[in-house]
Amino acid sequence: MNAKNAYEVALQTVVVELLKAIASVTKRTPKFRTLLKRIDKTLREIEPVLYGSGRLSRVLDRPEKETKMFIFYLENGKEIVLKCSRIKCWNVYKKFVHANKLIRLDNELLWFFQVEFKDKLSARMTGLALVDEVDQVVSTITKRAGGFSSFGNVPGLPDLIVGLDFHLKELKRLLLKIDNQVLTVSAPGGCGKTTLAKMLCHDDEIKSIFGDKIFYVTVSRTTSLKTIVQKLFAHHLHVDNCEFRTDEDAKNQLENMMRQLGSHKILLVLDDVWSESESLIQDLHSQILGYTILVTSRFMFSRIGSTYELSLLNDEDARTLFCHSAFPNDGNQISVPDDLVSKMVKCCKGFPLALTVIGASLRGQDVVKWTTTLQKWSEGQSIFDSNCQLLHSLQASVDALEDLPIARDCFLDLGSFPEDEKISASALMDMWVEFYNFDKEGMYTSEYLQVLSSRNLLSLLPTRKDASELEGYCNEHYVTQHDLLRELAIHLSSKEPIALRERLYIEIHENDIPDWWIQQTQSSIDARLLSISTDETFSSVWYDMKAPKLQALVLNVKSKKYTLPYFIKNSKELKVLNITSYEIYPTELHELPLISSLSNLTRLRLEHVSLSPSIQSICKIKNLQKLSLIMCEIGDSLESCTFDPDPHMLPNLIELEIESCYNLKVLPAGLSCSLNLQKLSITNCHELETLPERLGSLPNLEILRLYSCTKLAELPESTVNLHRLVFLDISDCLSINSLPDQFGELTGLRVLKMSNCHGLEELPVSVTNLTLLEDVICDEATSVDGGETDKKVVYVEVDEEGGVGRWKRHQGWCQIGDWAFLVVTGDNK
């Protein structure tokens, strides 16, 4: 027997023994089963070569030393296989090392038989070597076999991607900027977060940095830390059947494995993380140098790392994606008119999932189907009625609020307001104070808005940077909501029969009153919240409605003239009334006296409406606690109330808010009889010249905001009697040139805002008595080194004990010698 024949027999024998060892171990233990099956498959593919005529001879036609080493390696491989059953389940590190030995065994088999299996080698080698020793073997195999991808188990990309190139560029910039950090891609469901994460993983620059150290794990809502780590070991580290005693054990084992990978940069992608899993991100964020976590989530994790908010598609990209789904052959419509396509795209509001799902639902449909679909939507049918996939995707975020039922109710209440409009947090608070017993300071409103914002169910708009805690959160905040989310809120609120719904949302186009309303005039509805939206052609033709449980009524107006529905006079339980006009000019409001019969009304908000002298009927509402007049045209309708104080004027009023009422000149003198008034806010009323002389007769007033009342010349002398006043804002009151001499008697004052008071050059000496002041907000101070300044200086003398000098710690104040200086913009002085 010549040497070649001897090697042939030896090779056949060792392969058979290796097969037997694999079969035996696979039966006895589930550990490494995946890898063992893979080696078994390779050996089965090799068998025809071992016994095929002349084929093995071609394989063995290589240096004798190389063949002997390979046979020795396979004999050693048998011992590696047999050792599988002796490794303990809890020893993850040994499992990891042993798994890589099995991987190398399979690689060597393919390598040695590459004459017959070169194509299989290229197809199957996919980033399985994870330690230095195996990396060297893989490198050798790659060179000999023509190379293979070292990229791991990252999902593939969809056929068409639009509108994400800019986001990919920004995401890469942020990801490479941070090191050893967490970066979250956040957006509502169906916006393309997962696609963006996949694009990042497939990006050449990212792969050149992280190599095969990109680990991608999809996280389900009920995922535990142990489950995530098990997926990592199984899919990327190729260690099956990991058993961890605790989450802490799983974390420690993962950390050990990451350290074994050396100094290479590591990218861990956690896709579709839910709010319940925030702690998992923290646990996975170990302090290994170069270890970066990319998270995709419909929630925001503000306490962890940085957040990149993914925006929706613009019109051009939205149309491209829609047409690709609706017309898959070439993306161009053949028989569907262009205007129908444009309208359908507009209905999808830039949501990638909506564009894809709705486009697919219309694929191959004739023009009639397109037209009737649009017609149904315009008549009030929800877009979710015929698109379950879209509904389930977006509803999942709402369902995640199951442990926060009030937050879910707050989300549903947002359907009360028109699409594409800002919603005042103050308007929301008005409802939520009554519905959910929220505090009247707005802190609970703030909390729940933050909860909804963190879940991308609404967006919080930026507020004034100098807003004070004492002013109240809601006075400065607005929110917006995407149209599809608003429609989702309405859809989820409309599952019950109309008469039984807790929230009832009605949209009236022209004078087309819903049939059910006309037919049910003799029966009642159970709605607690009623929202009625009308368009510019509505002529205030109302039918009767019996709503004995109604607590909040929101009227969204777009017509030039508007008559209040007369059925509200019978809504005896009504506590909140919000009337807002979205017309270009203030809507002329009629039949306002109807509300005078609402004995339980506690909160009234009128926005962008023109009020006739009938506004005086508001002043007789006995239980009204808060009155908001926003951008209203008031004119002289209050003048008749200014001569004689009326002891019956709003006896229970706690808060009066007047904002941007451009033609307001005077306040009613009777206001001084509202003894329960705690907050008086008059802002951006540029025609207001005077305040009631008896303003100081409000014994409970705590907050006085007069921001940007540019013609207001002075504060009444009686202001100094407001001993409970803790907050005063006269910022941008350009005409005020002095404060009352006894201003220091406001001894409870904690916050004083007085920036841009150009005429105020000298403060009264009595301000030294304001010992409780915590914040003084004014213009920036001049330098203490006597350098040149283009600002005007006003001053007060400091007493021997420091007095006003203590203000130097606050914005806008500095001390030079015995003087405290306050600087305001103006000419040099």
TrEMBL record:
GO terms for molecular function: ADP binding. Pfam families: NB-ARC, RPW8. Keywords: Leucine-rich repeat, Plant defense, Repeat. Residues 1-150 form the RPW8 domain. GO terms for biological process: defense response. Belongs to the disease resistance NB-LRR family. This is RPW8 domain-containing protein. It comes from Mikania micrantha.
